[in-house]
Specification:
The complex is a heterodimer of chains A (77) and B (109).
Chain A lengths: L4 H11 L4 E6 L7 E6 L8 H12 L10 E6 L3
Chain B lengths: L1 H13 L2 E5 L9 H13 L4 E4 L4 H11 L6 E4 L2 E4 L1 H9 L2 H8 L7
Parallel strand pairs in B: 1-2
Antiparallel strand pairs in B: 1-3, 3-4
Helix pairs in contact in B: 1-3, 2-4
Classes of the chains: A alpha+beta (77), B alpha+beta (109).
Chain lengths: 77, 109
């Protein structure tokens, strides 16, 4: 079962309340998403640590129900 | 489990550059793995591709090993670097090339 965009966004928001999330449907199939996540909590962290925060927010479905998430992160400017 | 960890540790410590992926460098089985292969090929670095689809223990074990939920995963000199998105960002910023150079990994790019 793919994860709907609203669910992806809600989970990231739950873990990173200040996050500004831009989701792009890569394949037009509601299943392959690109997410750009901007949050102040990424400041001073490595890319790996930033991505881990997002993965942690999404939870155990990352790599399972949510197979295809292209992820980029940034800090607010 | 700990056996798998030991096995993974041996793989990442005995090769300068290791890509855990779905499929093989010649025949990637997933778009993300394909992108990771394309980046490494473009850099012209020699690397060991480990097909996790051929080894369920490694497929699960690698996620615990790195505390990272997805595949592909790139390791340089035993250190986890990131997945394909991080590889792409680093490549575009010139950081991946720098990382290889800093670690004494020969690259063509």
């Amino acid at each position: 079962m793919p994860m709907p965009a609203a669910e992806i966004e809600a989970r990231i928001k739950a873990g990173l309340p200040d996050a500004v999330i831009t989701l792009t449907d890569l394949a037009g199939d509601d299943n392959h998403w690109a997410a750009h996540v901007v949050s102040a909590s990424f400041a001073g962290k490595t890319r790996v640590a930033q991505h881990k925060l997002v993965y942690a927010a999404i939870g155990d479905d990352m790599g399972g129900a949510l197979h295809a998430l292209q992820l980029t992160t940034g800090v607010p400017t | 489990m700990s056996d798998t960890n030991t096995r993974i540790a041996e793989i990442v410590n005995s090769n300068d550059v290791v890509l855990f992926m779905k499929g093989t460098p010649l025949f990637p089985q997933c778009g993300f793995s394909s992108r990771a292969v394309a980046i490494l090929d473009h850099l012209g670095v020699a690397y060991e591709g480990v097909d996790v689809l051929q080894d369920m223990e490694v497929r699960q074990g690698i996620k615990a090993f790195s505390d990272w939920p997805t595949i592909p995963q790139l390791y340089v000199k035993g250190e986890f670097v990131g997945g394909s998105d991080i590889m792409m960002e680093m490549y575009e910023a010139g950081e991946l090339q720098q990382l290889m150079a800093d670690n004494g990994v020969a690259s063509a790019a």
